[in-house]
Design goal:
About 45% of the residues lie in helices and about 20% in strands. It contains six helices and five strands.
Length: about 140
Amino acid sequence: MFHRILIPVEHTATDDVILHYIRPVAKQCGAALVLIHVADGWAARNIRPLALRESEEMKGDRAYIERLAGVLRAEGFEAEALLAAGDPADEIAQAAERERCDLIAMATHGHRGLEDVVRGSVANKLRHITKVPVLMVRAPGGK
């Protein structure tokens, strides 16, 4: 059914939630896993327009997703790691197309109403701009 699954990760405990749900799906389908983290610090958001180098935060993010991909490979999955910078929803949608993923699987925080306005909702924006199916799993602690 699925061949390549894009998994946005945040470099938080929330990542464990989506990985818990997607491992059996990927195993059943024999799907490759493509992890993506969209760095969101000042340097990350301005890296292209200002031709900046990766910040220490971005280097840490890269090490994290590479380590996570290594764990998945050790479990027998085909896994890749991507580090992006910019608007998270836009970067995730573009990566899904560029990497030819046929599913985006992500954990959400379950914000509602004013919290979405204040914090924004990557999941909400993403579901409106991508043509790739999106599986959303609410992380514990969401509203």
